[in-house]
Each structure stands twice: as C-alpha cells, then as structure tokens.
Amino acid sequence: MPFPISHYGDLGRAFYIYIHLRIWYNTSMRRLRTLSDIKNLKNKRVIVREDFNVPIKLEEGKIHILDDERLQAAIPTIQFLQKKGAKIILISHLGRPHTNSDHHLSLYPVAKLLEKLLRRHIEFVYDVFEPNLAKRFADMPAGHIMMFENIRFFPEEEANDQAFAKYLAAFGDYFVMDAFATAHRDDATTEGITHYIPSVAGPLLEKEVNVLSEIIQKPKHPFIAVLGGAKISTKLGLIRQFLEIADKVIVGGALANTIFAAHGLSVGTSLVEAGMFEEVRKIPLTHPKLVLPVDVVTASSWDEGANIQTKKIGQVGATEVIGDIGEASAKNFSGEILKAGQVIWNGPMGFYEKSEFSNGTTVVAHAVAMVGKNAVIGGGETIDAVRDLKLDSKIFFISTGGGAMLEFLEGKELPGIKNLYA
C-alpha cells in the first residue's frame, strides 16, 4: 500500500479511506443542480454570484482594468438568462477592501466595461441597503441587468452574516453560484444565501466541478501532478492525496525547500515553513512517487548583481537563497511531464518573475503545454506564467480557482458548492 496510508498506521488508513469515500460521494453520488433544473425563468428575479475580481491599475486617479477575461467568461451565463427573460442581479467582489472608502476597488468601472462588452445597459447600485431597491428591481423589464457595488464593502459579507444573506436572498427567486474561485469562502453571497433561496450552479462553476471531478475519479494514466509555490501548509494535504492517486508527484518551488529542510538538508536562508517540519518528515525523500529537484539555482542575495550559481541539493551555502530549480531538475521534471496521459499543475518552480530564476517554470510550462489536451492548470501565478509565455491556448483547462481548486482536489467540501447538490 502506498506511503501516506501505511505510514500513519490504522488511524491514517481509516482517515484516507474516509477522504476517498467522501470524494467519491461528493463527486459521484450527488448531482449538482444547474440552470437546466429551472424550467421557467421568464420574469424571474435571478441573483448571480460572479467572479469579477479583475486585475486593475490605479493611474492618475483613474482605474484601468488590465484584463477582461473574467468578464468575457461570464457573458454566456448573463446572455442565457437574458434570452430566457430573467431579471438579473450581478454580485461580485473586487480585491480586499478594508472599508467602503476604498474607492479604487469600486465595481463601477467593471460595470461600465461589462456594459460595452454586452452592449446592454447595467443599472449600478452603490448601496445594497437603499430603501427602494426592491421596487427598482421589481420594476425592471425582463432581460435587464443590475449590478451591486463591491460586496466586500459590506462587512456582513465575509462574516457570512445570516441576516444579510437572508436580506439579499429576498431580492431574488433563484440564486446562481457561478464563481468557483470564491467557492471555498464561507461568505454571505457564496454559502449564506443558499439557505434562503433555491440555488443552482452556473455554467462556469459546473465546468470547474466536472473537470476537477474527472481528475479525481478517472485520471488518465500516467497521471502526473506538479506542485510548486511558496506555502506547503496549503498544499501538504494535496501532496498526500496525489501520492495516492497519481503516478508521479513533482514538487518544486519553496515547497521543496521545506521538504529538504525538514529532512536536515541545507537550504540556506531560503523561504521555508518551519512549523510544518514535523508533518513533512512523514513523507520520505525516497518515496517512489515523489520527484524532487536534484539541483537548484542560488543567489548570495536578492539584490541586483548578486552571485548566482547552480548547486546540487545539500550543497547550498548557509547564507545563500534558492530562487529556482536547476537545469538538471528542469530537464528531469520535463521528462516526467512529457510521459503524462494527464497532468495537473499548480504553483511556479521558483521566483519566476526575475529572469535569473525563470528557467524552471518556463521549462515546466512548455512541457505541460506539450501535453495540451490533457493538461489542467490553476493558481494565479501559474496562470500568469503560462500566459506570459503565450502558452495558454495550448492548455485544455485553466481553473479560475487557486485555493478553491486545491481544496476541491484534496477532497474538502467547499462552502459555496455544498448546498448546490440535489
């Protein structure tokens, strides 16, 4: 039996059996309710939770939207509801505002851009507690759209205040959860509202669930999982999960730093999570499915002009910092990926934003793109890297979820999805 179960003994075996049974039940036995379950949308009030958390730039007091892809992705859902004659309220967040005075995080510029893309007027609501709001919405003609201001301007949202969720639900006849990236959040407009109004999954969320469920249930072999990034605390459960269901688990980035440091190998002053050492030690470096770097690119500091070298694992100096996997590791990782019948990738191999440390992520990205139709990626940095390299068109599926993707694949029940099952 593979390591993660046998190593933990009877309790560990029971835990992993429970996890797999839960994944199987969540993704196989229960059916996700979708828009097709609603037979008549004519003049129905439909609240749609979308993900309009677009990248923005504040320049000379004006907000510039840097990428409209999330808006483009939501358009088919909105147009479907319009065609069916529904009255639509769009809800989203933007960034992490501290107060409603963070005006640069207003959704108003997003609404204006979405208007242009849809070629339809959007009625914008600055205050969801406006006294005559219910009447305004009721008086709207079929097919018209209203968008609420950044829902995180209201502290009740992230507190999952049930009175707030019930208040919002009263505006609609149905709720459509279409924002997979926020499905792991226990918020009023992801989880709370589903208790008070008939709720279904939108097309974007439905596709995410279907694609990721397929990976859990019926991966194509050889199944290769590639994990990188900074925090092993967010991915250790997933590493264990993939050591069970994948054929190889490739680990790079600062995740590998923590694994090496936990086993007593020098990583210099590199980023590690020392608090995870005890748990990480339960995964042996010699695990037959685990593929780790054999060399790394180090620097004497992060400053310009620092001394950059390639070192074998275990030979990193006490004052050096690891910025990337080395060429031998990149070649090894690429070779494993190119054997894949299916590959899933989340997390860069190093500090790829700096050219000196971009090679590992670049090589992995090209290899994943070669797998193409059987490649799935997720996580903001991973997606950015793939798009910077203009490889995104070669990837079968790009998940909109970072944390949501990780938690779903690990088998956790996501708050924004759990109440959408029939």
Biggest sheet descriptor: 6 strands, parallel
Low-confidence stretches: 1-8, 13-17
**Oligomeric description of these chains:** single chain
Shape: elongated
Question: Characteristics of this structure?
Answer:
Rossmann fold, 422 residues, 2 domains, 36% helix, disordered N terminus, elongated
Report on this structure.
- By secondary structure, the protein is of the alpha/beta class.
- The chain has two domains: 35-205, Phosphoglycerate kinase, N-terminal domain (Rossmann fold), CATH 3.40.50.1260; 219-410, Phosphoglycerate kinase, N-terminal domain (Rossmann fold, 3-Layer(aba) Sandwich), CATH 3.40.50.1260.
- Helices cover 36% and strands 17% of the residues.
- The protein has helices spanning 3-7, 9-29, 69-83, 108-118, 133-139, 162-169, 203-217, 236-245, 253-262, 277-280, 327-338, 359-371, 380-388, 403-410, 415-418, and strands at residues 45-49, 56-59, 62-65, 87-91, 122-125, 145-148, 174-177, 199-201, 223-227, 248-251, 290-291, 295-299, 308-312, 321-325, 342-346, 375-378, 397-398.
- Strands 5-6-4-1-7-8 form a six-stranded parallel beta sheet, with helices on both faces.
- Helix 2 (9-29) packs across helix 7, helix 3 (69-83) crosses helix 4 and helix 8 (236-245) packs across helix 14.
- The longest helix is centred in the N-terminal third of the chain and has 21 residues, at 9-29.
- The protein is elongated, with a radius of gyration of 23 Å.
- Mean pLDDT is 92; it is low at 1-8 and 13-17.
